[in-house]
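User: Quick sanity check before I run a bigger batch. Here is a single chain. Can you write out its predicted 3D structure?
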Amino acid sequence: MEQHRTRRHEFLEAHSDLIQALGRRITAARALAGMKVEALSAILETSPRTVYRLERGKRPANYVELHLIARATGQPMSFFFGVSNEGRPIAPHLLAE
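Assistant: Done. Predicted structure follows.
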């Protein structure tokens, strides 16, 4: 079990930039939708703390969570990967650190 934790930690550390970028996009989508953390946490059936962790890039969102966030905020899944359906960058000014 300890080895699994180590591999998981190494994976998260190696991909921290991507996870943090995804977190910023989740925050931007929620803000654009005028949604509070508590409302999003209810939709995800999780705690507000978990949403804060997702938004701060402390925990990666899984596919189901990302799908629910997209539906709740009215954003296409492509929003969370940085491009519009037409291939243009999405609101880079909202994603600045």
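The chain has five helices and no strands.

User: Great, the batch can go ahead then.
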